[in-house]
Protein backbone atom coordinates (compact mmCIF):
# COMPACT_ATOMS: atom_id res chain seq x y z
CA UNK A 1 0.00 0.00 0.00
CA UNK A 2 2.97 2.30 0.48
CA UNK A 3 3.90 1.56 -3.13
CA UNK A 4 0.33 2.36 -4.15
CA UNK A 5 0.49 5.72 -2.38
CA UNK A 6 3.70 6.74 -4.15
CA UNK A 7 2.37 5.72 -7.57
CA UNK A 8 -1.19 7.06 -7.29
CA UNK A 9 -0.92 10.38 -5.43
CA UNK A 10 1.57 12.07 -7.84
CA UNK A 11 -0.69 11.21 -10.81
CA UNK A 12 -3.99 12.20 -9.22
CA UNK A 13 -5.68 15.58 -9.41
CA UNK A 14 -8.34 16.13 -6.77
CA UNK A 15 -9.51 19.24 -8.61
CA UNK A 16 -10.97 16.88 -11.23
CA UNK A 17 -13.43 15.42 -8.73
CA UNK A 18 -16.89 16.09 -10.17
CA UNK A 19 -18.62 16.67 -6.83
CA UNK A 20 -22.32 17.41 -6.95
CA UNK A 21 -23.32 14.90 -4.29
CA UNK A 22 -24.91 17.56 -2.14
CA UNK A 23 -25.82 17.04 1.49
CA UNK A 24 -27.16 13.56 0.73
CA UNK A 25 -23.89 12.40 -0.78
CA UNK A 26 -21.91 13.93 2.06
CA UNK A 27 -24.01 12.24 4.75
CA UNK A 28 -23.81 8.91 2.95
CA UNK A 29 -20.01 9.12 2.68
CA UNK A 30 -19.74 10.31 6.28
CA UNK A 31 -21.81 7.42 7.60
CA UNK A 32 -19.91 4.89 5.52
CA UNK A 33 -16.48 6.12 6.61
CA UNK A 34 -17.37 6.53 10.27
CA UNK A 35 -19.26 3.25 10.53
CA UNK A 36 -16.48 1.29 8.84
CA UNK A 37 -13.76 2.78 11.03
CA UNK A 38 -15.74 2.42 14.25
CA UNK A 39 -16.62 -1.16 13.38
CA UNK A 40 -12.93 -2.05 13.12
CA UNK A 41 -11.99 -0.24 16.33
CA UNK A 42 -12.36 -3.35 18.55
CA UNK A 43 -9.75 -5.14 16.45
CA UNK A 44 -7.27 -2.28 16.72
CA UNK A 45 -7.85 -2.10 20.47
CA UNK A 46 -7.76 -5.86 21.04
CA UNK A 47 -4.10 -5.84 22.10
CA UNK A 48 -4.95 -3.63 25.08
CA UNK A 49 -6.48 -6.54 26.98
CA UNK A 50 -2.99 -7.97 27.41
CA UNK A 51 -1.63 -4.78 28.97
CA UNK A 52 -1.16 -4.17 32.66
CA UNK A 53 -3.92 -2.17 34.37
CA UNK A 54 -1.19 0.37 35.14
CA UNK A 55 -0.33 0.95 31.46
CA UNK A 56 -0.51 4.63 30.39
CA UNK A 57 -4.08 5.33 29.34
CA UNK A 58 -3.23 8.05 26.84
CA UNK A 59 -0.61 5.95 25.04
CA UNK A 60 -2.96 2.96 24.97
CA UNK A 61 -5.70 5.02 23.36
CA UNK A 62 -3.39 6.79 20.93
CA UNK A 63 -1.84 3.61 19.54
CA UNK A 64 -5.21 1.91 19.19
CA UNK A 65 -6.53 5.03 17.47
CA UNK A 66 -3.58 5.12 15.09
CA UNK A 67 -4.22 1.49 14.22
CA UNK A 68 -7.70 2.42 13.00
CA UNK A 69 -6.62 5.71 11.43
CA UNK A 70 -3.84 4.25 9.30
CA UNK A 71 -5.69 1.10 8.24
CA UNK A 72 -9.01 2.82 7.53
CA UNK A 73 -8.77 6.58 7.06
CA UNK A 74 -5.49 6.68 5.14
CA UNK A 75 -6.50 3.86 2.80
CA UNK A 76 -9.99 5.27 2.27
CA UNK A 77 -8.40 8.61 1.39
CA UNK A 78 -6.18 6.83 -1.12
CA UNK A 79 -9.26 5.29 -2.70
CA UNK A 80 -10.89 8.71 -2.99
CA UNK A 81 -7.77 10.17 -4.59
CA UNK A 82 -7.53 7.27 -7.05
CA UNK A 83 -11.01 8.13 -8.35
CA UNK A 84 -9.52 11.29 -9.93
CA UNK A 85 -7.01 9.37 -12.05
CA UNK A 86 -7.49 9.70 -15.80
CA UNK A 87 -8.58 6.35 -17.25
CA UNK A 88 -10.75 4.86 -19.96
CA UNK A 89 -14.49 5.50 -19.45
CA UNK A 90 -15.27 1.79 -19.30
CA UNK A 91 -12.41 0.95 -16.91
CA UNK A 92 -13.30 -0.90 -13.74
CA UNK A 93 -12.40 0.58 -10.33
CA UNK A 94 -9.57 -1.95 -10.10
CA UNK A 95 -8.21 -0.93 -13.50
CA UNK A 96 -8.33 2.73 -12.51
CA UNK A 97 -6.61 2.04 -9.20
CA UNK A 98 -3.69 0.27 -10.86
CA UNK A 99 -3.57 2.32 -14.08
CA UNK A 100 -0.51 4.36 -13.04
CA UNK A 101 1.45 1.45 -11.60
CA UNK A 102 4.10 -0.63 -13.34
CA UNK A 103 2.89 -4.17 -13.98
CA UNK A 104 4.99 -5.71 -11.20
CA UNK A 105 3.81 -3.20 -8.59
CA UNK A 106 0.19 -3.51 -9.75
CA UNK A 107 0.29 -7.28 -9.36
CA UNK A 108 1.90 -6.96 -5.93
CA UNK A 109 -0.70 -4.40 -4.77
CA UNK A 110 -3.62 -6.52 -6.00
CA UNK A 111 -2.15 -9.56 -4.25
CA UNK A 112 -1.92 -7.53 -1.03
CA UNK A 113 -5.57 -6.49 -1.42
CA UNK A 114 -6.67 -10.10 -1.88
CA UNK A 115 -4.67 -11.32 1.12
CA UNK A 116 -5.90 -8.39 3.20
CA UNK A 117 -9.50 -9.13 2.28
CA UNK A 118 -9.13 -12.78 3.23
CA UNK A 119 -7.48 -11.87 6.53
CA UNK A 120 -10.16 -9.31 7.39
CA UNK A 121 -13.01 -11.66 6.60
CA UNK A 122 -11.38 -14.48 8.54
CA UNK A 123 -11.58 -12.23 11.61
CA UNK A 124 -15.17 -11.31 10.78
CA UNK A 125 -16.21 -14.94 10.41
CA UNK A 126 -14.47 -15.93 13.64
CA UNK A 127 -15.94 -13.06 15.65
CA UNK A 128 -19.39 -13.83 14.26
CA UNK A 129 -18.93 -17.46 15.22
CA UNK A 130 -17.91 -16.50 18.75
CA UNK A 131 -21.00 -14.32 19.06
CA UNK A 132 -23.18 -17.21 17.92
CA UNK A 133 -21.50 -19.65 20.32
CA UNK A 134 -21.89 -17.14 23.16
CA UNK A 135 -25.65 -17.40 22.74
CA UNK A 136 -25.37 -20.76 24.49
CA UNK A 137 -26.47 -23.25 21.86
CA UNK A 138 -25.17 -26.66 22.91
CA UNK A 139 -26.09 -28.65 19.82
CA UNK A 140 -22.56 -29.01 18.45
CA UNK A 141 -19.66 -30.79 20.19
CA UNK A 142 -17.85 -28.41 22.53
CA UNK A 143 -14.36 -29.01 21.13
CA UNK A 144 -15.44 -28.47 17.53
CA UNK A 145 -18.13 -25.87 18.16
CA UNK A 146 -16.18 -22.75 17.17
CA UNK A 147 -14.62 -24.33 14.08
CA UNK A 148 -17.90 -25.81 12.84
CA UNK A 149 -19.87 -22.60 13.35
CA UNK A 150 -17.13 -20.60 11.58
CA UNK A 151 -17.23 -23.05 8.67
CA UNK A 152 -21.02 -22.94 8.40
CA UNK A 153 -21.27 -19.15 8.63
CA UNK A 154 -18.38 -18.69 6.20
CA UNK A 155 -20.02 -21.00 3.67
CA UNK A 156 -23.34 -19.17 3.97
CA UNK A 157 -21.60 -15.83 3.49
CA UNK A 158 -19.79 -17.15 0.42
CA UNK A 159 -23.03 -18.40 -1.13
CA UNK A 160 -24.75 -15.06 -0.55
CA UNK A 161 -21.77 -13.21 -2.06
CA UNK A 162 -21.80 -15.35 -5.21
CA UNK A 163 -25.53 -14.79 -5.64
CA UNK A 164 -24.96 -11.03 -5.72
CA UNK A 165 -22.07 -11.06 -8.21
CA UNK A 166 -24.37 -10.63 -11.20
CA UNK A 167 -25.86 -7.37 -9.91
CA UNK A 168 -23.61 -4.93 -8.06
CA UNK A 169 -26.65 -2.93 -6.91
CA UNK A 170 -27.57 -5.85 -4.65
CA UNK A 171 -24.24 -5.42 -2.87
CA UNK A 172 -24.84 -1.69 -2.51
CA UNK A 173 -28.27 -2.35 -1.03
CA UNK A 174 -26.69 -4.85 1.33
CA UNK A 175 -24.25 -2.18 2.53
CA UNK A 176 -27.16 0.18 3.16
CA UNK A 177 -28.90 -2.48 5.25
CA UNK A 178 -25.73 -2.95 7.31
CA UNK A 179 -25.58 0.79 7.96
CA UNK A 180 -29.13 0.73 9.27
CA UNK A 181 -28.13 -1.36 12.29
CA UNK A 182 -24.50 -0.23 12.65
CA UNK A 183 -25.53 3.38 13.37
CA UNK A 184 -27.91 2.54 16.24
CA UNK A 185 -25.48 -0.06 17.57
CA UNK A 186 -22.70 2.51 17.72
CA UNK A 187 -25.05 4.97 19.38
CA UNK A 188 -25.75 2.50 22.18
CA UNK A 189 -22.04 1.70 22.55
CA UNK A 190 -21.05 5.37 22.78
CA UNK A 191 -23.87 6.22 25.18
CA UNK A 192 -23.13 3.25 27.43
CA UNK A 193 -19.44 4.15 27.50
CA UNK A 194 -20.27 7.70 28.55
CA UNK A 195 -22.78 6.68 31.21
CA UNK A 196 -20.40 4.09 32.69
CA UNK A 197 -17.21 6.12 32.34
CA UNK A 198 -14.67 5.65 35.13
CA UNK A 199 -16.39 2.39 36.11
CA UNK A 200 -15.16 -1.15 35.62
CA UNK A 201 -17.47 -3.20 33.42
CA UNK A 202 -15.39 -6.31 32.71
CA UNK A 203 -17.30 -8.23 35.37
CA UNK A 204 -20.48 -8.14 33.29
CA UNK A 205 -18.84 -10.51 30.79
CA UNK A 206 -19.44 -13.59 32.96
CA UNK A 207 -22.43 -12.31 34.90
CA UNK A 208 -25.43 -14.30 33.69
CA UNK A 209 -27.75 -12.05 35.67
CA UNK A 210 -26.66 -9.06 33.62
CA UNK A 211 -29.56 -8.22 31.32
CA UNK A 212 -28.89 -4.98 29.40
CA UNK A 213 -32.37 -4.77 27.91
CA UNK A 214 -32.08 -1.00 27.56
CA UNK A 215 -29.43 -1.41 24.87
CA UNK A 216 -31.45 -3.88 22.81
CA UNK A 217 -34.61 -1.80 23.06
CA UNK A 218 -32.85 1.49 22.28
CA UNK A 219 -31.18 -0.03 19.24
CA UNK A 220 -34.44 -1.55 17.97
CA UNK A 221 -36.39 1.68 18.42
CA UNK A 222 -33.66 3.73 16.75
CA UNK A 223 -33.56 1.34 13.78
CA UNK A 224 -37.32 1.44 13.29
CA UNK A 225 -37.58 5.21 13.56
CA UNK A 226 -34.53 6.03 11.41
CA UNK A 227 -35.51 3.58 8.65
CA UNK A 228 -39.11 4.80 8.65
CA UNK A 229 -38.08 8.44 8.40
CA UNK A 230 -34.74 8.54 6.55
CA UNK A 231 -34.22 5.30 4.59
CA UNK A 232 -33.72 5.64 0.83
CA UNK A 233 -33.69 2.10 -0.52
CA UNK A 234 -34.87 0.43 -3.69
CA UNK A 235 -37.64 -1.34 -1.79
CA UNK A 236 -38.55 1.51 0.54
CA UNK A 237 -38.10 5.29 0.63
CA UNK A 238 -38.61 7.03 3.95
CA UNK A 239 -40.76 10.05 4.66
CA UNK A 240 -37.93 12.61 4.57
CA UNK A 241 -36.25 11.47 1.30
CA UNK A 242 -39.69 11.28 -0.30
CA UNK A 243 -40.35 14.91 0.57
CA UNK A 244 -36.75 16.11 0.11
CA UNK A 245 -34.96 13.77 -2.38
CA UNK A 246 -31.65 15.66 -2.19
CA UNK A 247 -31.42 14.73 1.49
CA UNK A 248 -30.47 11.21 0.44
CA UNK A 249 -30.21 8.26 2.82
CA UNK A 250 -29.27 9.51 6.28
CA UNK A 251 -30.66 6.62 8.32
CA UNK A 252 -27.18 5.87 9.68
CA UNK A 253 -26.62 9.30 11.22
CA UNK A 254 -30.11 9.66 12.66
CA UNK A 255 -30.12 6.06 13.86
CA UNK A 256 -26.93 6.88 15.76
CA UNK A 257 -28.49 9.99 17.33
CA UNK A 258 -31.81 8.32 18.15
CA UNK A 259 -30.04 5.38 19.83
CA UNK A 260 -28.07 7.72 22.09
CA UNK A 261 -31.24 9.53 23.14
CA UNK A 262 -33.27 6.35 23.69
CA UNK A 263 -30.50 4.62 25.62
CA UNK A 264 -29.86 7.63 27.85
CA UNK A 265 -33.54 7.56 28.81
CA UNK A 266 -33.93 3.79 29.17
CA UNK A 267 -30.68 3.40 31.09
CA UNK A 268 -32.28 5.17 34.05
CA UNK A 269 -35.02 2.53 34.15
CA UNK A 270 -32.68 -0.43 33.78
CA UNK A 271 -31.84 -0.26 37.49
CA UNK A 272 -28.52 -2.08 37.49
CA UNK A 273 -25.02 -1.47 38.74
CA UNK A 274 -22.83 0.80 36.65
CA UNK A 275 -19.74 -1.26 37.33
CA UNK A 276 -18.67 -4.79 38.20
CA UNK A 277 -15.15 -6.14 38.64
CA UNK A 278 -14.02 -9.25 36.80
CA UNK A 279 -14.48 -12.56 38.61
CA UNK A 280 -13.49 -15.56 36.51
CA UNK A 281 -16.06 -18.37 36.58
CA UNK A 282 -15.08 -21.61 38.26
CA UNK A 283 -15.47 -24.95 36.54
Question: What are the defining features of this structure?
Answer:
283 residues; mainly alpha
Task: Provide a descriptive summary of the structure in words.
The chain is mainly α. It is built from 10 helices and no strands. Helix 2 crosses helix 3 (about 55-80), helix 5 packs across helix 6 (about 145-165) and helix 8 runs antiparallel to helix 10. It starts with a helix and ends in a 13-residue tail after the last helix. The protein has helices at about 1-10, 20-45, 55-80, 95, 105-135, 145-165, 170-195, 215-230, 240-245, 250-270.
User: Any idea how many domains?
Assistant: 3
Count the DSSP helices: 10
Given the C-alpha coordinates, what overall shape results? globular
What is the radius of gyration computed over CA atoms, rounded to a whole number of angstroms? 22 Å
The major pleated sheet works out as: none
Distance between the termini: 47 Å
Secondary-structure element string: HHHHHHHHHH
Class by alpha and beta content: mainly alpha
Number of strands: 0
In helices, the fraction of residues equals: 55-70%
The percent range for strand residues is: under 5%
Average pLDDT rating: 81
List the helices and strands and how they pair.
Layout: H1 2-8, H2 22-44, H3 57-82, H4 93-97, H5 103-134, H6 145-163, H7 168-195, H8 213-230, H9 239-243, H10 251-270
Amino acid sequence: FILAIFTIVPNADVSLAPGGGGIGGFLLALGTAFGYSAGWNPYAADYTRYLSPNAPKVATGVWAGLGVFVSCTVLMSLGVVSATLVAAPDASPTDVFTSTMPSAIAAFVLLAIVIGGISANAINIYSGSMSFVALGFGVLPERLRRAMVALILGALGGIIAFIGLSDISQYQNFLFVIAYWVGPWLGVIFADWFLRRRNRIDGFLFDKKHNPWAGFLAMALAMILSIWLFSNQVQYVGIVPTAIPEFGDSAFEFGFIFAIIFYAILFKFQRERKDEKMVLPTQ
